[in-house]
Amino acid sequence: MIKRLLSVLLFLIIFKSNSQIIYVKNDATGLNNGTSWQNAFTDLSTAINSTSNGQIWVAQGIYKPTTDVNGQVPSDVKLNTFNLKLNIAIYGGFSGVETDLNQRNWVLYQTILSGEIGDENEYNDNIQHVFSSEYVNLTSNTILDGLTIKGGYARNSNGGGIYVNQTSDGSFKIKNCILEENYAVGEGGGLYVFNSNPIIENCIFRKNKAYTGGGMYLWYSDAIISNCQIYDNRADNFPNGGYSSLTAGGIYIGSYSSPKIFNNSITNNFAKNEGGAFVNDSNYEVIFNNNIVSKNQSEDGGALFLGWTTYCFNNLFFNNKATRYGGAIYMDYDPNRGQFINNTVVQNSAGIKGGGLYIDGANVDVTNSIFYDNISPTGTQIAAVNVYGNWAPDFRFCNIQGGLENLATQGNAIVYQDNINVDPLFADTDNNNFHLQVSSPLINAGTTNSSIIAVSWNGANGQIINFPSTDLNGNQRIIDNIDIGAYEFDSSLGINKTEKFSFALYPNPSNGYFNISSNTSYDSLSVYNILGVELFHKSTESEMTSIDLTNYPSGVYFVHFFMNDKKYISKIINN
């Protein structure tokens, strides 16, 4: 009995230690020991250095690091950095009175962790890394949540916002954070990760810049990146300098990485050479599904530059631009069997070849996808150069505007089977609504033949890759037979196609204002954020011509329609 009581007591002591809360508030006037909001630490570096586990709650305000990665005061103030430590979770978004994590609001009460220590109009005198972790094997208990991380300048280095270099596989979480205006004269303006598997969820990466991976650079990483907005990032030269890579304005994936990238909006990023939005240079398989990718620009691959095997499912690519090859996507040499299934590629442009898609030696299956209104001098929709080995791409059950005449090929013969050339009948292209109208010939026109779309694929490093069960709206992928393109008709409402109902929320993504279009009536709607919190409810049809989210933070939201005692769900993205 005594041994049992001692064991329980020891457990309670450990539990209390692991769940302790340390408070940080830059204008606190108490004992400065972190035990309460009144007695909060006023310096975040002190709080981090004083604990080995638990939670740190940080009130609104601006905080700058005062020690280096080892907790010491360096001779060069630019080496100051907040330490990303094992088993420490740092939460922002507090006003300074909360008693529960659910009470915070990281949009209203911004917690800004800044590397800006010099002239506010200059970035080259800033702190090198706002957050750093070196040679520490982090775990999912290491969390950054509800923080704005900005103003890091990694001169001749990587990771201006966050720099993580681990000795072996580990993980950490970044959630509800904004990484903005961070720079790296190297790799990963916002985030640089080596040998770690971060979970990045509901974050914003914007206005970051690097030579490679303006938004983020990941290698030896099986990251999960979901429900994020990645926009206005650049891979470009810095003043008084030049570099040959200049790839991946948004996301760069390097060797030995198998990340999953889904449900993101990747918009208006720029790379001087390759991949305005995204570059895959991993020798392992990368999964890229259910993303909206628009208005990105580069020399080759206006949106995506795929150097190795990528599984692209249910993505929308529109209004991307390449000044040379591949207005939306450039697929480079790859003897493996990549998959490009149920994507919508529209209104992209290339200066030389492949307005929608350019293939240079990639051995890829292109299935159930739409190529429409893309432009370039050669291969208006698609151009393929197949001069390696004895392989070439396969095109099956796609809708390709102009058919073979708009698909320029060279070298090995392609497979071109069961494709069609029709007007997709999109709902409203003027407002970037690329759902299908009720009369679209693409409804039920795709294939789920297991010899063409496998139940699953085996990855090189042992992972199993499955075709998603949901479409780009996050709803049921197959109703009756599968449709061509990223959206399954009426899957957002769960209504059988034979009922001939049509609902649309547009434009989507939007800067906060969404129109509602429907040819049937419904009773009410509710809007929920990604945490499942109901934001508002409208109960009369006269109120339901639009949804206004201009006063709500950027992110993914869900609209619940109610009709005849049934609920139907649609996903929208507020930019």
Share of residues in strands: 35-45%
Number of helices: 2
The stretches of 5 or more residues where confidence is low (pLDDT under 50) are 1-18, 491-502
Give the C-alpha Rg. 25 Å
Shape: globular
Strand order of the largest sheet: 1-2-5-8-12-16-20-24-28-32-36-40-43-46
List the helices and strands and how they pair.
Blueprint: H1 2-18, E1 21-24, H2 44-49, E2 54-59, E3 61-63, E4 82-83, E5 88-94, E6 111-114, E7 131-134, E8 143-145, E9 148-150, E10 153-154, E11 162-165, E12 173-175, E13 178-180, E14 183-187, E15 191-194, E16 199-201, E17 204-206, E18 209-212, E19 216-219, E20 224-226, E21 229-231, E22 234-235, E23 251-253, E24 260-262, E25 265-267, E26 270-271, E27 278-280, E28 286-289, E29 292-294, E30 297-300, E31 304-306, E32 310-313, E33 316-318, E34 321-325, E35 329-331, E36 334-341, E37 344-346, E38 349-350, E39 357-360, E40 362-367, E41 370-372, E42 382-386, E43 394-396, E44 399-400, E45 407-411, E46 415-417, E47 426-428, E48 433-436, E49 456-458, E50 464-466, E51 503-506, E52 513-518, E53 524-529, E54 534-538, E55 546-548, E56 555-563, E57 566-574
Parallel strand pairs: 1-2, 2-5, 3-6, 4-7, 5-8, 6-9, 7-11, 8-12, 9-13, 10-14, 11-15, 12-16, 13-17, 14-18, 15-19, 16-20, 17-21, 18-22, 19-23, 20-24, 21-25, 22-26, 23-27, 24-28, 25-29, 27-31, 28-32, 29-33, 30-34, 31-35, 32-36, 33-37, 34-38, 35-39, 36-40, 37-41, 39-42, 40-43, 41-44, 42-45, ...
Antiparallel strand pairs: 47-48, 49-50, 51-52, 52-55, 53-54, 53-56, 56-57
